Amino acid sequence: MRLNDSNLLKNLCYINGTWHNEDNGKRIPVINPANGNLLADVPDMGKAETKAAVTSAQTALPAWSALPASERSRLLKRWFELVMQHQEDLAHILTYEQGKPLAEARGEIAYGASYIEWFAEEAKRIYGETLPSSNSDQRLTVLRQPVGVCAAITPWNFPNAMITRKVAPALAAGCTFILRPASKTPLSALALAELADRAGVPPGVFNVITGNAAEIGSVLTGDQRIRKFSFTGSTETGKKLMAQCSATVKRVSLELGGNAPFIVFDDADLDAAVAGAVASKFRNAGQTCVCTNRFYVQADVYEAFIEKLTRAVQQLKVGNGWDEGVTIGPVIDRQSIEKIRQLLDNAVGQGADITCGGFSDGLFFQPTVISGATQTMAVAHEEIFGPLAPVFRFTDEAEAVKLANDTEYGLAAYFYSRDIGRITRVSEALEYGMVGVNTGLISNAAAPFGGIKQSGFGREGSRHGLDEYLEMKYIALAGVNS
Fold this sequence. Notes:
Its EC number is 1.2.1.79. By secondary structure, the protein is of the alpha/beta class. Helix content is about 40%, strand content about 25%.
């Protein structure tokens, strides 16, 4: 692996400020999805090592939570600076293990770092309250204090940013943290731990363990010392983890599956809508939770939109993330290829037409557009998580909103219109936690990221993201005038 700083490539886990091997002698291979090459192997840890990480986080909690907010802010700011100083190496690691084009990987590193910077600043703005009392002999105050030891399981599609937007607010609030990254992409997480260590984050405050998902997960959800659990992944897995957390009544935040609609009204700027469609659907090879899943286009502009979108998608270049001009890398594994193929075959079998793409080579799936999609097809209801764009037709605004809301998911939605009245109505009517109007990109550290319905609950980013890691304590002080 071509890195300027080879010490960023770690194959041990980070517990209590030191690097540890597994107890059982087992390792997990990390494979480059673009070519199948072995990049490294990491520890296959289980319950014992996870409990040790929890102990280290619990031990570190009192000193970290008592540290002045300005000092926590300083350490987080230093972590941010180190991430940006090593942006190129971190992007290389990300492209090697996840497959996304190098330019896109650089963007993820900067995006992930923005959460560290944001919460470094927010750490100094954890305000309490003084309440008016009806009794002159009392003083009523509200404190906001750290939840305690926190834990998270993060996915493979954004192996850098999904970590920083959970860990940064927790550390800013005064919590300590145990992270279990996805086994397909653990190297980005371990590199972040190395930089946190260099930044001066004390031992035990941030711990990273890799290994058996079931064993690690059972400790992270079942250990009563952990007071907050966060998960990004599938709705099915999220439900199971939430149930496991119920035994100890943990605070839980979940960012789960999506089925994002992208609505194009007949008054939209079609060229802008197509550009937004490509950005929303095809970045990271369509493997994003807020990725457009369903395109709904009004009948009068349907054919024109299909034509413009097809031409734009045909310009995308598929290949190894290292190759010049590549805009679409591989999907993560063979199972993903098979799912995309099944969804495509189901749609074509019911009368949809392929306007471009429709084939794969290894783990590279050619960006595909299908016209004539209908609500009876699997693509209308299942999360695609790949570069397949089904385009549906609708007649009026009421139908568009009804179709868009016809799902158990509620993470992100997008629409294009130049009618201010329609923009207001549709924005309010869409049953989603986030809505992009005349844009296909909505993520921002300053904004609350999260969904409703079976897409989960809780928010990441913004000042609200800090609240996820804080408890509210009310204090009634009497006898002031005695």
